[in-house]
Amino acid sequence: MTVIRQALSKWALSVGIILTLSACAGPDKSKQLDLGPNTPLIGVRSAWTSTVGSVDFPLEIRPVGSLVFVAGSDGTVAAIDARTGGDLWRTSVGVKLSAGVGSDGRYAAVVSKENELIVLDGAKELWRQKLGAVTLTAPFVAGARVFAMSADRSVSAFDVVTGRKLWQQQRSGEALVLGRSGIVMAIGDTLVTGLAGRLVGMNPLNGKIKWEAQVANSRGTNEVERLVDLVSGVSRQGNQVCVRAFQSAVGCVDGVRGNLVWSKSASGSTGVDGDESEVFGTESDGRLIAWKRADGERLWVSERLRFRSLTAPVLVGRSLVIGDEVGTVHFLSRQDGSPLNRLSTDGSAIRSAPVLVGQTLVVVTQRGGIFGFKPE
């Protein structure tokens, strides 16, 4: 786990302490269950493969139509047709990246390790603008604007064509924030972001706050234990958005009124997925949990994949699809988490939650392998 202080003089010390604690508390591999032989109960075939170079940042895959936008740490950015695996375009921005990729289908945006917001029109670079803090969340591109959320959870808006800064929303009092990608999305005419343990609705034209919904509260006796933040990967059904607060809660919010529908204790660090009836998520120890969407009642828990460093799940028909630390893609029953099938990739960790693009399931590994699968 990486954390970033707003006060740069304290940043390196806090990161070092927390990295040490994280390493000492790693998963106990001896407790992993033997998965046994794979007995496929559903058909899944490999459709295509591609590559983008190693991925050492929290890559987010946000499909637009049949396209997926991916990036490697070396600055490679590509738009790939998920139906065929072929490139629509591919380019390099020439610098190492810390966040990406956001796109509206035409314009794409990434962030460099030098905190530069870089915007492309197809494979052509349009502009770069310096951001005020380290940024790990993929920019959000919509309505001729680019919205960038930095690790201190400041939010800035830029004109997508010219790069002119339109506004910035800076919150005070968040001394310690999470070094993971956060939430930036749109619901109707509202820009919705995660700030600390709150889901916040903003006016995208000027950054003014419309509403705030408290999903989780700080807890513990020190700054690290009190760390609470919303992480990327949400389940949206209509105006309702279900989210994960890092190591503290899962909850659902009415994205128009800003009302908290429910919040339940949970100890995960990745996002959630679901449909109109259920919400699914993986806990930090690898347990898979299903909640009733209406009220957060826990429906079932599966411990089959404990201690395997799982991604967030994606719901595909009757399957929950989850990636793990050795590049295995698990297909599990949405009814109880029982195994339906599993496939291997390139032996490196699945870097982001799998995504369904049309009829193709897309996963990206840490080595930069991009795999398209067709569930049958």
Radius of gyration: 19 Å
Distance between the termini: 37 Å
- Which structural class should the secondary elements be placed in? mainly beta
What would the principal axes of the Cα set say about the shape? globular
In spatial order, strands of the major sheet run 2-33-32-31
Mind explaining what this structure looks like?
The protein has 1 helix and 33 strands. A hairpin with a 2-residue loop joins strand 31 (355-357) and strand 32. It has a domain at 1-31. It is mainly beta and 376 residues long. The longest helix is centred in the first third of the chain and has 17 residues, at 8-24.
Please specify the SSE layout and strand pairing.
Blueprint: E1 3-5, H1 8-24, E2 44-51, E3 67-71, E4 76-81, E5 87-92, E6 97-103, E7 107-112, E8 116-121, E9 124-130, E10 140-142, E11 145-149, E12 155-159, E13 165-169, E14 176-178, E15 184-187, E16 190-195, E17 198-202, E18 209-214, E19 230-237, E20 240-245, E21 249-254, E22 260-265, E23 272-274, E24 278-282, E25 288-292, E26 298-302, E27 314-316, E28 319-323, E29 328-333, E30 339-344, E31 355-357, E32 360-364, E33 369-375
Antiparallel strand pairs: 1-14, 2-33, 3-4, 4-5, 6-7, 7-8, 8-9, 10-11, 11-12, 12-13, 15-16, 16-17, 17-18, 19-20, 20-21, 21-22, 23-24, 24-25, 25-26, 27-28, 28-29, 29-30, 31-32, 32-33
